[in-house]
Amino acid sequence: MRENEVWETKPRFFVQFFAIVVVFVLAKRRILYKIKLGLKTMRITILHDEKEIGARVAEIFVRLLNEKPNAVLGFATGSSPLPIYAELVKACRSGRISFREATSFNLDEYLACPDKKQTYRYFMDENLFSQIDIRESFTYFPSPKHPESYDEAIEKAGGVDLQLLGIGRDGHIGFNEPGAAFDSKTHIVTLTPSTLEANARFFDDDPKKVPTKAVSMGLGTILKAKHIVLIADDPSKKEAITKLMSHQEDISSPATVLNRHSNVDVFLSESVLR
Ligand code: F6R
After folding, report:
1. What is the spatial distance between Cα 44 and Cα 230, in angstroms, rounded to a whole number?
2. What is the DSSP letter of 41?
3. Which of 75, 105, 107, 215 for a ligand 1 pocket mutation test, highest count of atoms within 8 Å of Cβ?
4. 8 Å CB contact between 257 and 182
């Protein structure tokens, strides 16, 4: 009689035990997922306009350089960073910061640029480097000869402490256009018609004059930065920003790769989401 009871309760016990294990594993996964999501959620700040963005983001650079004078900085070109660079010039002139011990790595550079004045090196010299005390030989741009050596150089310098990013209408960051591999290193890219059109404003409003190729840090390179700050101040970026904020990775919108990073700040002007 007692033996029978044991045989009857045994299968029930196993079913119950199995159910408890399943519930536990699922709950744990959910908790872990929530923790993971919580850790990876980017911080989004909406400010009035590009001037406010400039002042706020410049303060992040100021704080970093004061804490770590030999910081490694990742710079971007384009219209969006200009107010930040203007603030950094002011901060440097007033003695609040120094770039003397800093190193910089720019995101990208055009290939076969017809005019030296259209290169990103020229842009950075004009808008920042010539007005601050950074050592020119410590300002780097990717080269088409050995693109991947850029990743090695960044690593050798200790990795990027603070990477500034703009965002393209098509969601590109650096010149990583839709479809770019999320783990790519610095590589040569072909610009999309959307980017050629967007950048035509720097080339007599003629998309045909914009170089069609560039060399860019890859998405994998960008993800290695310790802190990433992405800025957008133009309504044309609304779709790309909406995709970024949906927390879904989407290969057709490269900036969404930033959902994989645990230390991202996004600064938007009110006009972007209006
Ligand atoms: C530039 C770069 C690009 C720009 C982007 C937005 O170095 O990497 O990804 O950040 O095209 O450009 P703007 O700021 O001109 O709208």
Report:
1. 9
2. P
3. 107
4. yes
Find the helix or strand (DSSP H, E) in which 253 lies. Answer: none
Question: How many Å is the maximal CA-CA distance in the chain?
Answer: 96
Give the closest residue to 271 by CA, choosing from 226, 228, 237.
237
The answer, yes or no, to whether any atom of ligand 1 lies below 6 A from the CB of 224, is no
Known active-site residue 170: yes
Q: How many domains does the chain have?
A: 2
Is 3 considered catalytic here?
A: no
Q: Residue whose CA is closest, atom 3 of ligand 1? A: 174
Q: 172 C-alpha to center of ligand 1: Å? A: 8
Looking at residue 269, which CATH number applies to its domain? 3.40.50.1360
Ligand 1: does its nearest atom lie under 6 Å from the Cβ of 77?
yes
Domain match, 136 and 231 both: yes
SS3 labels along 139-158: EECCCCCCCCHHHHHHHHCC
d(CA 128, CA 134): 9
Q: Which residue range is the domain that position 20 belongs to?
A: 1-40
Q: Is the pLDDT of residue 41 over 90?
A: no
199 CA: nearest ligand 1 atom? 15
Interhelix angle 82-93/50-67, rounded to 10 degrees, is: 50
87, pLDDT greater than 50 = yes
Are 179 and 255 within one domain? yes
Instruction: Evaluate: CB of 241 within 6 angstroms of ligand 1.
Output: no
Residue 21 and residue 87 in one domain: no
In this prediction the pTM is 0.87
Q: What's the pLDDT tens digit per position in 103-125?
A: 999 999 999 998 999 999 999 99
* Active-site option among 50, 108, 151, 161: 108
Q: What is the pLDDT of residue 16?
A: 75
Residue 17 three-state SS:
helix
